[in-house]
Amino acid sequence: METQAKQTDIECRDREIDEELADVLTAISVVSKRLARKLTMLSRQDEQKAEGGKSDEQDE
Length: 60
Description:
1 helix; mainly alpha
């Protein structure tokens, strides 16, 4: 009986760890996506500057 109770505790902890890992991986994914977006924007700004354009201003 005691062995079965320990096995149930281990399975419950394993599920909790799996959920926590999934949450961490999701957070990493969200941050990675934001960084990729920012890098893309910076790259576009650099390209515009190289072409002689103004990045955040209107042409007059």
